[in-house]
Design a protein that fits this description.
Helices cover about 40% and strands about 20% of the residues. It is of the alpha/beta class and about 475 residues long. It is globular, with a radius of gyration of 24 Å. It binds nicotinamide-adenine-dinucleotide.
Length: about 475
């Protein structure tokens, strides 16, 4: 096993070459970094909220100034041009949005009043930021997922150390320059690079942890956090279902399902990964889906053209191929697309539609994370709901029906945290507005969205004042 000080190679998903290296901090250096952050957090957490917000807004401005460089770095790591260059602006919007909503939602969380149990006791709540938060993030959306939890945590007054995935860490260099532009922030926010060993070491240093990644790693992270009794907020994978009813506008349904299945090469946690269509419209829906799928082009050789880029993580192509092979061996039919193909060192896959699938197949039960849409027919609404809920996961789901009310009726019965009605894959819409919990293996530890997305970074305290004489033991007698 390599020593922690060793450099790790980073693969370019378009060329297949290792053309970048990261150097994980040694355990000693990691400990020093965390001590520095802890020391700086004391002043950061004590600052008035308005001052922290002013600092964060300066960071947003700095990201905007460096957006091109950040987008360029992320584009190399992910192989995606357009989305990678949109991400810095999404992060900027995220900072400005949380800065706008934080004062009111913190205010609402500060309770005071008179005890309903002891009328002589008044109380006042206090929110104390968790001193040092660790963030461990995945490769599929490097900058966005490295900062999704860090932004509200910093506003809350925490110091944050972020360990992004070793598969896609190039954004760290340009982002560090934006942090360095804002010295007050640089004292309480640090990005460190490394693989799972650095992730494990980080858990030993922090007071709470936000993890986004796979179920397998999430389990290890949960155990390590449980051993230290620190709060763990885990966001894992999904196998999102979409239900298309007999009354649905099939063009709308095919448009929504296709986009949510293949956008970002299907490498989004809330991608649509299985579709249940009423038997009366199954064939017509599949025809539309295939027609639309066939119009999509690979984003090769020019990363600025086409619709479907390479697999970011090379091993993902093999997993997706294995799911398709398993399905075909068990009787599924390939309506379009097929296997991954190697072009110029990268692995690509055309939009793929499978029919005649069952829940005995991996493509309907395990996270595929590729541009694959398996479609299964159902006869009754009850059956559709039972099939959609027959999953180890429960991240998000979608219902496309004749109208919103019909979709809502079904959506209310789906075991998933965020259910899109009349569209699919729009979970990000509620980021600062509504809370959602993941079901089953998709997550643990409270909503990362809505008010709790920020309030979870506080330890809630209560200060109680007794305005009467304290109870006297002599008067109380025997308990
Ligand atoms: P992964 O679990 O392989 O790695 C995630 C992170 O954990 C990386 O930074 C990695 O270095 C680190 N890590 C690995 N082993 C570790 C260990 N033992 N201790 C601590 N950290 C360790 O996940 P991935 O392949 O990078 O990401 C893809 C997965 O993430 C998919 O399952 C996807 O659905 C999921 N995901 C979920 C969400 C969500 O919001 N629910 C969002 C995006 C991605």
């Amino acid at each position: 096993m390599a020593a922690a000080e060793d450099r790790l190679p980073v693969r370019n998903p378009r060329t297949g070459d290792n053309d970048y290296w990261i150097t994980p901090p040694s355990p000693k250096r990691l400990h020093e970094i965390c001590q520095e952050l802890r020391a700086a957090q004391v002043a950061w957490g004590a600052r008035p909220l308005a001052e922290r917000i002013a600092v964060m807004l300066r960071w947003a401005d700095a990201i905007e100034r460096h957006a091109q460089a950040i987008g360029d770095a992320e584009a190399i790591d992910t192989g995606r041009w357009k989305l990678s260059h949109q991400v810095p602006h999404m992060v900027v919007d995220g900072i400005r949005g949380w800065c706008k909503s934080a004062p009111a939602l913190i205010d609402r969380a500060l309770l005071s009043g008179t005890s309903t149990i002891y009328p002589n006791v008044s109380f006042q709540s206090q929110l104390k930021p968790i001193p040092l938060l660790g963030v461990i993030s995945p490769w599929n959306h490097p900058f966005l997922l490295a900062t999704l939890d860090a932004i509200p945590a910093l506003i809350a007054g925490c110091a944050v150390v972020v360990k992004p995935s070793e598969i896609a860490p190039r954004f760290v260099e340009p982002v560090q320059r934006t942090v360095d532009d804002v010295p007050e922030l640089a004292a309480v926010l640090r990005f460190i690079t490394g693989d799972g060993r650095t992730g494990q070491a980080l858990i030993e240093e922090v007071d709470a942890l936000c993890f986004t990644g796979s179920v397998g790693t999430g389990r290890k992270v949960a155990v390590a956090c449980a051993n230290r009794f620190i709060p763990a907020f885990l966001e894992m994978g999904g196998k999102d279902a979409a239900v298309v009813t007999a009354t649905a506008d099939l063009d709308r349904a095919a448009t929504a399902v296709l986009r949510s299945s293949v956008f970002a090469t299907g490498q989004i946690c809330f991608s649509t990964e299985r579709v249940y269509v009423h038997e009366s419209v199954h064939d017509a829906f599949v025809q539309k889906l295939v027609e639309k799928s066939n119009q999509l082009e690979l984003s090769y050789p020019d990363p600025r053209r086409g619709h479907i880029g390479p697999f970011t993580f090379v091993r993902q192509a093999a997993i997706v191929d294995a799911h398709i092979d398993d399905a075909l061996a068990q009787g599924a039919r390939l309506a379009c697309g097929g296997k991954s193909e190697q072009l110029g060192g990268g692995h690509y896959m055309r939009a793929t539609v499978l029919t005649e699938v069952t829940h005995a197949m991996k493509v309907m039960t395990e996270e595929t994370f590729g541009p694959v849409t398996p479609v299964m027919r159902y006869r009754t609404e009850e059956e559709a709901i039972a099939l959609a809920n027959d999953s180890d996961y429960g991240l998000s789901a979608a219902v496309i029906a004749g109208d919103v009310e019909e979709a809502r009726r079904i959506g209310e019965r789906l075991d998933a945290g965020a259910v899109a009605l009349q569209d699919a894959g729009i979970t990000i819409a509620i980021l600062r507005d509504a809370e959602k919990n993941s079901f089953n293996l998709s997550g643990m530890g409270g909503s990362r969205m809505g008010p709790n997305g920020l309030l979870r970074f506080y330890r809630k305290k209560a200060l109680m004042a007794n305005h009467a004489a304290p109870a006297d033991m002599l008067a109380l007698g025997e308990a």
